[in-house]
Design brief:
about 80 residues
Length: about 80
């Protein structure tokens, strides 16, 4: 079975994080996870929980719907 990748969400997270001048470690601390876990989000290896998506949206100052939209796009591309 092919590994599912969530590359669009990862690209958006990385772009917004860089825009705000945060490191991966900064965002990880703010959302309450390990830096490795946050790196997996950016690399598209795992999907954050709904609660974590809301927290990241607030930290990165984007509407949570933008994150859900790219997550859905990733889902559709994976089929």
């Amino acid at each position: 079975m092919k590994e599912k990748r969530y590359k669009n969400m990862g690209k958006l997270l990385k772009a917004k994080r860089n825009e705000k001048g945060y490191t991966q470690n900064d965002v990880a601390k703010l959302i309450g996870c390990d830096r490795t876990t946050y790196t997996y989000y950016e690399n598209g290896k795992i999907v954050p929980s709904v609660f974590t998506i809301y927290k990241m949206a607030g930290i990165l100052r984007i509407h949570y719907k933008e994150l859900f939209d790219v997550l859905y796009m990733d889902y559709l591309e994976g089929d």
